[in-house]
Amino acid sequence: MNQLFRSGRALTPWQPMRTRLLILSATLTLLAATPASAIKVHRVTSQGLADVKVYVTRSQGLADCIIYVETSRGLADGNATWYYEDSEGLADVKVFFTDSEGLADVKIYFTTSKGLAKCDVDWKSYKK
What we know:
This protein is an alpha/beta fold. The protein has one helix spanning 14-32, and strands at residues 4-6, 9-11, 39-43, 52-56, 65-69, 81-84, 93-97, 106-111. A six-stranded parallel barrel has the order 3-6-5-8-4-7. Strand 1 and strand 2 (9-11) form a beta hairpin.
């Protein structure tokens, strides 16, 4: 008879642990469901001002990232979604588009389908 008593009710030794696990599970589910914010990109015209240099390829297979450009900041989410920011100070990363594949840090392909967008590049790590 190894029972705990709370408010006149008998509890088994497992019930307090079960409650803690349910709370932990619910918390982790809520944290995992939070969408990642889109990458706010400011386009620069000089390599010296850029955090990262990108080359736009014509083939998905040659690209490091497949990028979808969102026109609404509120609808944008995820690492493969870019939102062009007019203000340099509000941008996550400053990007220079190069015509030379050899000079690029990252090769990208632009898609018109948000569902096809994917990218494992940590754009914010390029921030100077």
